[in-house]
Sequence to fold (183 residues):
Amino acid sequence: MKNATKILMAVAISLTALNACKKKDTPAPTPTKPTGVMMAKVNGKAWQSDPSSKFKIIDGDTIPGIEFQVNNDTLTLIASQLSDTSVIFGFITLKQPRVGSYTGTTGGTTGLMLYVKPYNIINIIAALQTTTTSYTFNITKFDAASKKISGTYSMTTTPLIGGGQATAITEGEFTDESYSVVP
Fold:
């Protein structure tokens, strides 16, 4: 009986020691969202703008990777993927407080959002004349002191004539993007 007790004690001590040495499960770190870019899915395919530090001249226009400007109550944004020359434009009429949800359609009075590929002035004019865009633009953070803005967006661009296929921009987001104030 003494041997059985010793064996049980040895097993208990061994299990306790093994359990103490077992690696603790640590939760996976929450991934940080990239800053300096806008992201979305275009018809289900991942899309990401180039960083704000990157510029390209297209049809004589200097196009930034990403840029936000505030002029009084108007937020202007441009985000471009220079490798395929696609561009997302936006003009949003802001209300107080700046944080909130903004929705609209092409030709509305609350703003405009547009996706153009490839970017050139002819395609922009054609898109404005031959498509309608409905959008939702949510500002989740508007920090006037640090001039940073975060939020989400989506839009659908539908051809008005010719039947063509709609372009769906979903899961759009931007995090702590710098904006400039235009006097």
About this structure: The CA atoms of residues 61 and 106 lie 23 Å apart. The radius of gyration is 26 Å. Residues 2-21 form the longest helix (20 residues).
